[in-house]
């Protein structure tokens, strides 16, 4: 009997300790997601009861061109591609260079990481000043080096708008991935490097055959963050292009917001939310699987 | 051993080494330039920015840009709002995370692993996922445009990472301490407050830094949930300001500096700590 009451006592204590976290987590994340899943099957304006329409929203999302979901998805994928194949290799390169203990290693590390700390809204505003067609640094620079005909209305032309988003996004988070990889590179024991060097390996060979295989789990985390981060992009698009010109730079998150505030289609907004969750999980699992297969 | 390695590096091709330093210096400039550019144009007049002196130091230091950003631009208020929202969100999520981590890592029960996995879902779930229902519920309850409109979601979104980081710290504390406390007649609750919490001080700064940056810079929720100017946070305030001052860059620059420099000043003094918290947040995930 005594033991049982002790068990109950323990259960109560566990519940007490979990309560604040559970309340927050369930009320702001889990329950809303359940509601999103439910409402994604409704034609709903947010305030009426709405009508159940099954998977029609999902079908419409992919078939109705005026929703621009495919455009948004394509843009996210382009961003993900450049993140994985341009940003991450560059981050890795920086991490490996810093791993060779140059002078002022700490200084370089800290400076390279700095853009990560700045709000994307601030970064966006700065780049607007760089892209400004009349007074922006970029066009002025092109003029100064006699390349005036390369000038563009960078965020306003269909040809350049997406690029004007990709460049700052990639640049800002190079330092983030570099830091993670650098932490891994520093974790490789000097003994291992020593041994390889005695066997006549060059620094690049050491990086390729010893360091990179060891930090592979970190690279995997970086790839997952880069891809899911691209799917979630919002800030820079809102600041730089507002999804324009002609909705060519929309991403899923801006479309989601449009559904709420421009079209009052809360059901469709929920559908986009659900698709985002599914895509994030699917990519995270796929990337993990790809890395595991490579190992075997 | 260590020295051998460095010697070898030193002996390596001097040409390649010079190239490496040129490259590192170039990349450092690319990363420092935006901060220099922001700071200098925040102190210039339009004439200087638009033509006379685009990238040089300001000829005339126009501090009035700052008073305009603070005054008509309301940046002072937005700064206080951001500070308030961020501080409370960190405090709430940190405390909730500490308690949850204690229940998960230091009390033995059947579903502790499962509970942990449940909280870790939050690391992959995008915050966009809950925006529609949360927005609908908050607007029905007339709960938009308050400080708590942001504080509660921010604490929820910081929670998973906080639990992850706290777990890393809490498993390092020897379990013998708990046992000793229990033998001395300390309850589970007492053990948490008297033994564990005081030992978790290093975790506070690591978790705090991570959550701080997440909340201080958050834009989507703030942009969607806050429409009145009294409760705007800095990112939303900057967007509003840039809409109002499209042709006057000085005050916008001042606003950017006001939003960014507090973080950067912290970073100058605590760079190692801040970097460590990012590493803790990713490597264990």
Task: Detail the topology: elements first, then pairings.
The complex is a heterodimer of chains A (296) and B (285).
Chain A (H helix, E strand, L loop, with lengths): L1 H38 L2 E2 L7 E2 L3 H8 L5 H31 L5 H13 L2 H12 L5 H8 L13 H30 L2 H9 L4 H12 L1 H17 L2 H6 L11 H10 L4 H30 L1
Antiparallel strand pairs in A: 1-2
Helix pairs in contact in A: 1-13, 3-7, 3-10, 3-12, 4-7, 10-13, 12-13
Chain B lengths: L1 H10 L2 H28 L4 H7 L11 H7 L4 H31 L6 H13 L6 H10 L6 H24 L4 H9 L4 H12 L1 H16 L3 H6 L8 H11 L4 H35 L2
Helix pairs in contact in B: 2-14, 4-14, 5-6, 5-8, 5-11, 6-8, 8-11, 9-10, 11-14, 13-14
Sheet of most strands of chain B? none
| Sequence stretches where pLDDT stays below 50 over 5 or more residues of chain A | none
Shape of chain A: flat
Q: pLDDT average of chain A, as an integer?
A: 91
Mean of all residue-level pLDDT scores of chain B = 88
Shape of chain B: globular
Instruction: Characterize the quaternary organization of these chains.
Output: heterodimer
Strand content of chain B: under 5%
Tell me the fraction of residues in β-strands of chain A, as a range: under 5%
Order of helices and strands of chain B: HHHHHHHHHHHHHH
Major sheet summary line of chain A: 2 strands, antiparallel
Distance between the termini of chain A: 53 Å
Major beta sheet, strand line-up of chain A: 1-2
Give the helix tally of chain A: 13
**Helix-residue proportion of chain A:** over 70%
Question: What percentage of residues of chain B falls in helices of 4 or more residues?
Answer: over 70%
Structural notes for this entry:
Chain A has a two-stranded antiparallel ribbon with strand order 1-2. In chain A, helix 10 (216-232) runs antiparallel to helix 13. Chain A is built from 13 helices and 2 strands, in the order αββαααααααααααα. Helices cover 76% and strands 1% of the residues of chain A. Chain A has helices at 2-39, 56-63, 69-99, 105-117, 120-131, 137-144, 158-187, 190-198, 203-214, 216-232, 235-240, 252-261, 266-295; strands at 42-43, 51-52. Chain A is an all-alpha fold and 296 residues long. Chain A is flat and about 70 Å long. The N and C termini of chain A lie far apart (53 Å). With 285 residues, chain B is mostly helical. The model of chain B has no long low-confidence stretch (mean pLDDT 88). At the A-B interface, helix 1, helix 4, helix 5, helix 7 and helix 8 of A face helix 1, helix 2, helix 3, helix 5 and helix 6 of B.
